[in-house]
Fold 5-methyltetrahydropteroyltriglutamate--homocysteine S-methyltransferase.
Amino acid sequence: MTRLPAHYDHVGSFLRPKYLLDAREQKAQGTISAEQLRLVEDKAIAEIVKFQEDVGLKSITDGEFRRTYFHIDFLEQIGGVKTDIPVTIIRPDGTQELAPPVMRVIDKVRHVKDIQLADFQYLKSQVSAGNTPKVTIPSPTMLHFRGGRAGISREAYPELDPAFYDDVAKAYGDELRSLAAAGCTYVQMDDTNLAYLCDEKMREAARQRGDDPNELPHRYAAFINKVVAQKPAGMLLGMHLCRGNFKSTHAASGNYEPVAEALLKEMNLDAYFMEYDDDRSGDFKPLRFLPKGKTVVLGLVTTKFGAMESKDDLKRRIDEAARYAPMDQLALSPQCGFSSTVHGNDIAVEAQRDKLRLVVETAREVWGD
């Protein structure tokens, strides 16, 4: 297994600066070109790289500044995939919820282009020696969970197993190989589906789509392992689990117990970023399934709201987690990115810096990195 750059990390997305949001709007209105927008994105990414390095982070992302959504922008560039753009729903109490987009497989899945290559090459050019550029991509399970069997063409895939899973894994493998050839050594897959399977209402929705929520985690473990089997040598491959993060809201709750064994014991991943910022995530007992050689990054610091956690509380919770998994196999991070979609969370720009510094300082005091 490949080790994380440090015992502190982060999930990857950041609030977009206003000038970048303005440029995206100008591009949508046709007043600037895609090339002009990319130059603005380059400027914003150079600034967010410096921001991350200034707070002491060792893994550095591009803030997902070239994306609208953490998943759609990537998935819609895979051959055979069509995505329906999500809409914002206003709940009866006035709060907002992002209706999940539906990813539909309309043809054989295939890798038709290097999706992240140019973005990684620019990121790498901005990251200082000694730090590690990290690429974030959506988990391949996103192509199955939301639509289920009904979301995958029966003409292309009369049977899902093994053809569908093999084709998706091959497409992901091709993408990982293109990144590795450019020098990428760290990729994080963002997955909401396994965390959703901890929530009874989401489990019932899976049943309504014809899936068994008790069987799905094990099927997804085998699915992820098909991708891991194609991972280039020397690349760290991790997974971030999320229960929803649109505009500081969440979509699911529940202890990790229903998925813990499949997630931690069966998947051949190097690291797991697991949300533990509030009671929605339950206790640390599921960490008992963590085998040697893997790392769990404890997401103890919320990105949803600006209230600051205390070092003492973070250290206490790390100690609690260490009752179930070896301390050296644990690390610390925020529970999610600050802006999983272009809309951003309900948190001040300055709070990003304060929370990341808290993560870095606390982890250094605990582990000595």
